[in-house]
Each structure stands twice: as C-alpha cells, then as structure tokens.
C-alpha cells in the first residue's frame, strides 16, 4: 500500500467511523472504485486505534469520571448508585454482545461478509431502521437518565456493526433513539461504548497479523492511523453539534443512495461482490481453514465470486 492510499483510507476511516454511514463500507468501496486491493479487516481494525485515540482525547474527562465512579462502585455502598457508576456498568455490559458475537463470526466478518452486495443491502437496511427510530423515538432522556439496561440493549445494537455496512455509530445511535434517548445523548453514549470494543478488535488484529502489520505494512499502518485520528476527532465534534439541531434523516438518505448506487454498479458488472478481495490468507490458521474449505483453489465447489 502506498502512502497516498494509506492517507485516503485513514481519512475515510476516521470520518465514517463516527458518522453513522459505516466505516467498513467506505473502506471497502473507496479502494474498489480506485481499483485498489481491499486493505482487509485486520488493517481496518488496527488503524481504528487512531479513532480510539480521538475518542479518548475528546471524552477524557467523561471517561475518567466514569471509570473512577465504576471502580468505586465495585466496592459497593452509595458509590454503586451514582449515575457515572451506572454508565460504567452500561458500557461494560454493552460491550459483551459485540465481543462474544465477534469471536463467533470472526472468519465470516473478515471474509465473505465483506461482499459489496452484503454491504449495499446493509447500508440500506440500517438506514431505514435509523429513519424509523428518528420517527418513533421519544428523544426525551439525556445522559443523566441512561441506565444499565440501556447499555445492554444498545450493546446488542452495536453488535449489528459486525456486519459490514451497518456502522457502529449508526447502529448504536439507532438503538439509543429507539430507547428514548435524545439524539445528542445517543451519539455521546455511542462514542463512549465504542472504546472497549475498538481496543479489543485492534489488539486481536495486531496479535494475529503482527508479522505483516508491523512488518512490511508498518509505514502505511502508521500513516493511516494518524489520518484516522485527525479526521475522527473532527467527525466527533461535527456529529455532536449536528445532532443538536438536525435529525438523522440526512444520513439515512445518504446511506440508501449509496446502497442503491452500489447495487447498480454490481448489477451493471462494473464491480463484482468480492472486488479487491485477495485469496491469499494472512495467517496459518486462515491457510488451514481455506484448504479445508469448498472455496479452496482447485476444489470443484469453489465460488466464482472468490476468484473474481
């Protein structure tokens, strides 16, 4: 990967990680349109450390206060009933669904679910759900009324982000609106909830792919991570201000339009569902899995999509 490509992918990652339009979708679509190879789920997970740093800096006071209250609450007593302690438990419990389901479906997430066709339909589907949440949501509760139960429910919505095209912020904001949170609170809690899962995904990706990501791809990874941090920090501030005055309908329209455009490009043959996806596995475990798979080279059941 060249430096220019790394900078562009990093900027796209940072912007779309926090705007509810799906970072995975855009990091797949942009290289496909330019004829570049898909950077891969591992590369994307690692450069999310840039967006994680953006959240940590932007919300460091909130995160520090919540962490201290949560740790004090573990000892019991009145501290456990403080709102910040409840937010801490909400973030902790809300992270469990995406961690469990992410490990269960890891291979599919990193491979066949990165199909542009799946991404197109997910962009449209979650966009329509977001519009419905905007329409029916009460939007009457602020951060001072977020409960542990909200954390669990929104955590299951966050797990939808495992499907490329859904969007972590899009799914959690949608869940927050359905739960009756106001737009700004739904977005703020979405950012706070993202911290543990982004960190976990990045650490796991580095552990499994460190020979590549910290070897030949070290420079592009660092450049893309820095670009993701800068654009991500800007996107957080922009979205919080935007949602104070505007609905999420603009993002819904964008998601549906992009999904339909992508379906059109696929239907016309200008793109194929697995455009840019390399058949070369990145780990020994993936090699063994693919050799046993019907999609392995030379196997009579190999999909034509994987060979495109």
Tell me what you see in this structure:
- The chain is mainly α and 308 residues long.
- It has 2 domains: 3-277, no CATH class; 284-308, no CATH class.
- Residues 279-287 and 293-308 have low confidence and may be disordered.
- The protein contains 13 helices and no strands.
* Estimated share of beta-strand residues: under 5%
Q: Give the domain tally.
A: 2
Structural class by helix and strand composition: mainly alpha
Our Rg estimate from Cα atoms comes to: 19 Å
Overall strand count: 0
- In whole angstroms, the N-to-C terminal distance is 20 Å
The largest sheet, given as strand count, sense and whether it forms a barrel, is: none
- List SSEs in N-to-C order: HHHHHHHHHHHHH
What's the rounded overall pLDDT mean? 86
Helix content: over 70%
Give start-end ranges of low-pLDDT stretches.
279-287, 293-308
Overall body shape: globular
Number of helices: 13
Top keywords for this entry?
308 residues, disordered C terminus, mainly alpha, 71% helix
